[in-house]
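Quick log. Single chain, no ligands specified.
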Amino acid sequence: MKLTFTTEAITKINALKATNDQLVLDLDDGIGPFSSLLMENGLKYRLLIVPAELVPANFDGTLTSNAGSIQFNADTGRYLDSTMQVNFNTRLGTFQLSGNSGLLEPNLPIAKALPSTDVSIH
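-> predicted structure:
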């Protein structure tokens, strides 16, 4: 699988990354170390910037990209297209993820993140 970033998107993302950061493509679905709320209305992709040493072991899939390698887990991998692109919409100030099947995420959040290991019982 391959993900290509437009020049504008790479510039914006590189401004957020530190030297040891890893890009992670994840679904905000309420499952896993980066999701805190169960999303009932379907899939929501997001691109996370995570310190490389804190990327969970189950994020063992790798996308090649012109912005470096991007990790993902098996749950996210089920929904990815073989060829995808991230562009930056200058008019709206948002990122978009598209693939062979069309627009996958019209407003792709990009944020620094840390995995959560908290467990609570209610």
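The mean pLDDT is 86.
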